[in-house]
Write a structure and sequence with these properties.
This protein has 16 helices and eleven strands. It has 518 residues and is α/β, with parallel strands linked by helices. It folds into two domains: 241 residues, 3-Layer(aba) Sandwich (Rossmann fold); 154 residues, no CATH class.
Length: 518
Amino acid sequence: MQFTSRYRSTALAVLLLLAACGSGAGSGQGSSAGSLPPPRGTLLAPPTLVATVPAAALLAQLTALADPNPLAQSGSPICDIVVYHVEYETVGALDEATSASAALMVPVAGPSSCTGSRPIVLYAHGTTTDRAFNIANLQDSSNAEGLFLAAFYAAQGYIVVAPNYAGYDTSTLPYHPYLIADQQSKDMIDALVAARTGLPIASALQTQDSGALFITGYSQGGYVAMATQRAMQMAGMPVTAVAPMSGPYALAALVDAVFFGEVNASATVSSTLLVTAYQKAYGNIYSSPLDVFAAQYATGISSLLPSLTPRAQLYAEGKLPEDALFSSTPPAPALADITPPLAPTVLAPTFALGFGSANLVTNVYRLSYIEDAQAHPDGGWPTVSSGVAAAAPGLPLRQALKANDLRNWSPTRPVMLCGGNEDPTVFWLNTQLIDGYWLSSGVAPASVSVLDLDSPNPAGGSYHNLKSDFALAKQVLAAAAVAQGATDGGAGAVASAYHATLVAPFCFAAVRSFFSVQ
């Protein structure tokens, strides 16, 4: 494939800025011995063509998906697209030089809205345990996000840049800096710089970057999108609008809620990723994994995730419990009523799953966390006072959570927040707290749009049809579960699908609508 390196003036300026700010040269990783690594954001090789996807082929692939099918929200693809794999220089949590990769999706044919000067969507993906994850591989049956990006954005005329993150795919970093705001925002910016360097691509010469930039992401990626907006705003880098979806923005409050018994879905995975990443970044979360993790899991847990071993196999091999984050025995008699909590009713079954006999986190550590939270309470949970993270937490994990909590800045560009208030994985309190913080900081309500898919839906209200369709999708899923023998009215099936399967396509649709008017 023929490749021409063309630095846009803005990309070159950013590269020079990043190089001046330091590139973790001391590690030597990603460079030959005795030499400096390339500057952050450097494109390490010509983009590799992964697939050429005609609109008709993408339509067929989407049609084959199980209910709820995203086509009702995405609309039929109108643009043929090309998908490239991009490798670039970035840094780890300690600013050590490393490489990472991203998908670059470019619309190349179709109506006039498919080519010419087109905006970029910079997208941050959700949590995965798959070390080999590559969002550019649209043939991977587990890569729903890649298909969503192709359907909702690339095939509708947007250029898409979607990092796989350091620690995944071809990245040379041996861990993933999970929910570390500084590193993850750098990774996103570096992917964007590298992708802009690689444009225009030989097979997509008719499509150029217009300079308009939209940032979005889902779940972990919602957090990363917001952290990226904050970092770019602080650096004076232009952003058109941003739409984080279902992200843990109020991270310190969320983890406090979990330790007080409101254990979210997939908590054993997210806790393992979080604690081990923060140990890599800060070095003081524990002296030994046994300080946090039960003995049966402590050996090897610091390098367990992400993994090339499927998650189900890790569960089967006893390397990680599927649900039991905490012991069903209270760490102190006074905590019996939150082991587990019984309210709110809609989330109580999810909380209950987080307790068992083969638990991941020890009672000793859970108690030390709760005692620190009682001595230094979060300003947003369980009650709202200051609205921000605890001023001076004592426990190293809570200190790290405060450092990475996003309740410490206010946006100057339009923002949309999307999610659902019954989410059992990333609780709605995150959106409530960040929105409340921004309002108290003087951010105009017109600058921040909030969509709760599960909120009351009066006729004629904003996103009325989308919310009606969301309610219908939940009903259809519940009815199917009952038909297959569920005795809970389908509530369990809805809860299991809520975060990734139900909410995601509806938020994608709302976000695209939001971007279209910016």
